[in-house]
Amino acid sequence: AADPAVISPQDPTLLIGSSLTATCTVSADFHLRAEDLYWTLNGRRLPAASYAALGPTTLSVALARLNGSKQQSGDNLVCHSRDGGILAGSCLYVGLPPEKPVNISCWSKNMKDLTCKWAPGTEGETFLHTNYTLKYKLRWYGRDNTCQEYHTAGPYSCHIPKDLALFTPYEIWVEASNRLGVAVSDVVMLDILDVVTTDPPADVHVSRVGDLEDQLSVRWSSPPALKDFLFQAKYQIQYRVEDSSEWKV
Taking every annotated instance into account, which residue ranges of this chain make up the domain Fibronectin type-III (predicted)? Predict the structure, then answer.
């Protein structure tokens, strides 16, 4: 069967504050005229003062100074027949282009991986879903690579598990995109060796040395991530008398 009506535009994406005129044209097979039609936006009937008949079977509606979409799936603009039947519909996406991501920071657990996190721009994804892509490359001669494991350390993070080079700085940046555009962060440069952040030593045990009251033995296990560490890890023991604020090393 033929579609009862055609609505235009089909899938508009607009900036907050924009205006839009949409038209609904009914197939002649349905014997409906422009005066038999009305419009709703998110289920609410739009005032007749915003309508204009552009022909015997075509009714337009003018939407002025649109607010941001109330839902990530868009706002539903629907053309109805007099009895409430749905003839056609379209999704409006109204919002803001993304702002550039900020505050990129990265760390490595074992010099073989890298985890980075960032913060979004203030309003860039308030109304429209925004995708984030972390990219990286060797500074002087590398090709662009894209991180694949997102949300590993929070909503704005990505983990690069392997195949990283040592002794060569990387350039790292984040691209934010939505239906209204793309924004790119500032580029961060780092060497993996400068951002190694190990897990703390595990299984720390303290015991007295024989019957001596002024000596203690301290034992611990190396963090698992350092099992195949390229360099020898260094450990520092800090201690203080209970209730004292002065640490000794």
Answer: 100-201
Do 5-95 and 102-194 share a fold?
A: yes
Please give the full DSSP string across 58-73, using - where no structure is assigned.
EEEEEE-SPPPPSSTT
Q: For residue 165, give the amino acid letter.
A: A
For 79-127, what is each residue's pLDDT tens digit?
Answer: 999 999 999 999 999 999 999 999 999 999 878 899 999 999 876 567 8
**CB-side neighbour CA atoms (13 Å) of 213:** 0
CATH 3.10.580.10 matches 102-194: no
Nearest Cα neighbor of 181 from 248, 112, 130 is 130
What pTM value is reported for the model? 0.74
CA 128-134-135 angle, to 5 degrees, is 135
Q: How far is CA 67 from CA 19, 71, 83, 89, 154, in A?
A: 10, 12, 29, 19, 30
Question: Measured between alpha carbons, how far is 166 from 108 in angstroms, rounded to an integer?
Answer: 12
Letter for the amino acid at 184? V
Strands 13-15 and 86-95: parallel
Provide the pairing of β-strand 75-81 with 5-8. Answer: unpaired
